[in-house]
Amino acid sequence: MAKKNTRDGNLDSASAAVAYLAATAPSTWNQFETQILRGDLYLRKNQPNSAAHTYLEAARKAPTQAHATKATYRLGQMLYGNAATEESGLATLIRIVRHEPDSPWAARSLDTLDVHFGGTQSGRTWLEKLYRALFNENPSSRVAPHLLYRGAMLHINGIKDGDLNIAMLLLTYLTENYPRSALWDNAMYGQANILHTFGRYSDEIATLRRILLEREPSYILGNYETQFYHRCSWRIAQLYAEFLNNPAAAIHELEYFVREFQYSKRFDDALFMLAVLQRKIGHINDSNHTLNKLLTARPNSRLVERARLVLQTGSDTAPPPPWSFPGTQNVDTKLPGEP
Prior knowledge:
Largest sheet: 2 strands, antiparallel
Strand content: under 5%
Order of helices and strands: HHHHHHHHHHHHEEHHHHH
Number of helices: 17
Number of strands: 2
Helix content: 55-70%
CATH architecture of the domain at 200-339: Alpha Horseshoe
CATH class of the domain at 200-339: Mainly Alpha
CATH topology of the domain at 200-339: Serine Threonine Protein Phosphatase 5, Tetratricopeptide repeat
């Protein structure tokens, strides 16, 4: 209740809830959380000095080191949010990454560093050097793959004269040495983008296949999907169709796509592309069957009229839907699994 009232702006109610918790929840853990809430409340009331003192007290009396790091992170964020103490806040967050690299708050601290230094070339260059140094200090830590991935992204679309070969080395090191990291899929997908830029389409397909091989079917909850599975299959089909001139392989991949990713927003595009390629190699009956499936499965699709036209006339004068293939400049840098 105290957290909800604080978020909703009901500061008087939040103050009362915090006071009630302090009086009725004497355990060390509850006292720590009460201190954090009190600090948040001071911050919402624009009382930064009181908030800082409260966070420091929470860190000093924290029941575990993990709790202390949480309080220190709150303190760092508060200091960073004040122009007069911004540098102290950044230094606090860097200390968390350096001295508590296995804490989830280390990765959260990197978010703030990215925002602060990512707006200028000089800032991004400095950040790349910092991430390299922090990784070298704690290569076996929980935050290490985050440092590798962010460093690679800086080389891909951040720093001036960024080196895709260095980015490739960083991403490859991540996937080979941190296979259980939440960033494994991101790193593999980043490698695929770089391989595409280098024109190594067969290697790109092999990399995308590795991501698909990680799919874990569950007959109770469906599949443990990441954002990349359907994108990988779609890209493989495109690579075969447009870059390797292998429509048969593209058809095989699109058949896999429409079978496995029926809830993808690209499902109707995949059916239409499949029908186009089937017609291209002379499989007219298969193409008609695919188009009828599109009409049945996606009756409201923007491609319905075109599918009907092809079924009636046997041809479609309009160009096929775009593959909308992203280049390396559009590498997805979102970091999944962070608290």
